[in-house]
Amino acid sequence: MKEVKISIFGFGTVGRALAEIVAENSEVYGIKLKVVSITDRSGTLWGDFDLLEAKEVKEATGKISNIGDYEVYYLKPEEIIEEIRPDIFVDVSSWDDAARVYEFALKEGVSVVTSNKPPIAESYDKLLKASQEGNAGLFFEATVMAGTPIIGLLRENLLGEKIEEIKAVVNASTTFILTRMEQGKTFEEAFNEAKSLGVLEEDPSKDIDGIDAFYKAKILHWVSYGAPPEFEERVGIREVKDARNVRLVAQVSEGRISVKPIKLPENSPLLVEGVQNAAIIKTDNLGEVVLKGPGGGGRVTASGVFTDIIKAALRFPKAR
Ligand SMILES: NC(=O)C1=CN([C@@H]2O[C@H](COP(=O)(O)OP(=O)(O)OC[C@H]3O[C@@H](n4cnc5c(N)ncnc54)[C@H](O)[C@@H]3O)[C@@H](O)[C@H]2O)C=CC1
Ligand SMILES: N[C@@H](CC=O)C(=O)O
Ligand code: NA
């Protein structure tokens, strides 16, 4: 059975959920998935360790380096690629500047799977070139709508369509906060409740000020049009007073992205609740296609990462 070596970078809510899913499904489609390293801010665990033990140590102590019987290394991100030589580099961290490591990995023939938005939103074209140069895959399903498959839809199933417009609610945290405010909670009460769900960013202002949704809108623009937008607009939810039927809506059309709170009509498919996301994709032949599903949470996000790991393993030869 072909063994595929995976290095996980970042071991928070999503990383630990991914460890669970890989441990439950280590042999899929004739492939044996082997996590050979896990990195968090305290260091890199590298070797033949027990995945679930690593998850327990992280949850109990907050640091992967506290694991007893295994070697912990202090590697720069590029050294993970050079020294460990994984087949797939999986970024589930909140490190905004990870694009330089993705580019290095891709050029080395190492596929990249990520749930981390800024590197894709800000460096998509450069990374696509690097993936072609290194014959390696770049996969980022979980960056938008978590495991709900909008990226695969746009990158594969709608390739024959002209994307006329996308209107979407793609940030779970603000949807949760706005729907709790609709039910009479204050912003502060709703915000604190959202914290317990594991969907807020490490820096929650990214959610509240529309930055997370903006990155996602930019990724949708890249995938739909192969270029960055000229016009960009971003407004968060801090000034929302009457939350009834209000959602943070991302609007994407060729050359333009906008993220702002919008009061929606009663029957709008975008009037989602809780951590649900929804998107209305308008194309030349199909008219409107509606996609709705969970947009945040550990396993919901790790689901998209895991599917991308399988895609990468099936499509790309082992790293050189
Ligand atoms: N939680 C969710 O519902 C979703 C999260 N995402 C994205 O997935 C990524 C992970 O999300 P969560 O696990 O929820 O976040 P988290 O905050 O629980 O975990 C992020 C981890 O990355 C680590 N990290 C940050 N910078 C690092 C660096 N330079 N070196 C090593 N480790 C570093 C942090 O220490 C933390 O353990 C984020 O980029 C997030 O935007 C995407 C979709 C949904
Ligand atoms: N913080 C994000 C997590 C998923 O991308 C959100 O609230 O949607
Ligand atoms: Na997705």
UniProtKB/TrEMBL annotation:
Known pathway: Amino-acid biosynthesis; L-methionine biosynthesis via de novo pathway; L-homoserine from L-aspartate: step 3/3; Amino-acid biosynthesis; L-threonine biosynthesis; L-threonine from L-aspartate: step 3/5
Pfam families found in the cross-reference section: Homoserine_dh (PF00742), NAD_binding_3 (PF03447)
Positions of NADPH binding: K117
Record: active site: K216 (proton donor)
Residues binding NADP(+), per UniProt: G10, F11, G12, T13, V14, G15
Key words of the record: Amino-acid biosynthesis, Methionine biosynthesis, NADP, Oxidoreductase, Threonine biosynthesis
InterPro entries: Asp/hSer_DH_NAD-bd (IPR005106), HDH_cat (IPR001342), HDH_short (IPR022697), NAD(P)-bd_dom_sf (IPR036291)
SUPFAM superfamilies according to UniProt: Glyceraldehyde-3-phosphate dehydrogenase-like, C-terminal domain (SSF55347), NAD(P)-binding Rossmann-fold domains (SSF51735)
Domain Homoserine dehydrogenase catalytic: residue ranges: 149-310
UniProt-recorded name of the protein: Homoserine dehydrogenase
Protein's organism: Pyrococcus furiosus (strain ATCC 43587 / DSM 3638 / JCM 8422 / Vc1)
